Amino acid sequence: MPIKSIKIPKKGEFLAEFVGIMLGDGNIYCSKKKGVYQIKVTNNSETDKEYLLNYVRPLARKLFGIEGTISFDKNRKGVNLRIAGIELFRFLLSIGLVEGDKIINQVKMPAWVKENKKFLIACLRGLFDTDGTIFQANKIKYPKRLTIGFKNNNKTLLFDVRDSLISLGFHPTNTKRNAIFLCRKDEIKLFMKRIGFSNNKHSQKYYNNL
User: Fold this and answer.
1) Could you report the per-residue pLDDT of 79-101, keeping only the tens digit for each?
2) CA-CA to 139 of 20 to 30 Å: which in 11, 27, 96, 124?
3) pLDDT given at position 124
């Protein structure tokens, strides 16, 4: 099959955010026998379609100069961004992402991301956009108080995220049921100021409760 040429981006905040997205909802697949090399990001078609279509897809285009295709899994309520090509496959592996099952492989944040504070913040944004949540922990007693959570079945990545938040001055809870939380009111504001969301689903919940 013809090799799809891509633009090779420099390591920076946009690439670090894309890495976070891939660590959260992405998958890197390869079948050498079939000559298939595919990158896929899967979101919920009911709640995250806007984020995938209007943010993730343009971000991938900006980074790699290649257009991804969109497909829907109606039975699973999923929307997928697929980008095929061995060049992109090889590049993503070269910057620290891993092919195959992320839980089995216990994928983690690449060292180059963790070593640069701006890159780390951008990567966390991608992770919280995909596997994060913002909600009212006690609607009756504290109707305006929000909690930000991050849930992932990969314990290595979960501890990576927790340690990263601590390094930035946050006080996340200990891991519980494959999740961590930010509960302090001042730290919710700090999170929005320093990290924030690119996924409007999350940011809208915050601004609706001010």
Assistant:
1) 999 999 999 999 999 999 999 99
2) 124
3) 99
Residues 6+ apart with CB under 8 A from 2: none
- Same fold across 13-102 and 117-208: yes
Largest CA distance in the chain: 60
DSSP string, 83-125: EE-HHHHHHHHHTT--SS-TTTTT----HHHHTSHHHHHHHHH
Q: What does the domain layout of the chain look like in residue ranges? A: 13-102, 117-208
**DSSP-assigned letter for residue 2:** P
CATH classification of 13-102 is 3.40.50.720, yes or no?
A: no
Q: Is 56 in contact with 64 (CB distance < 8 Å)? A: no
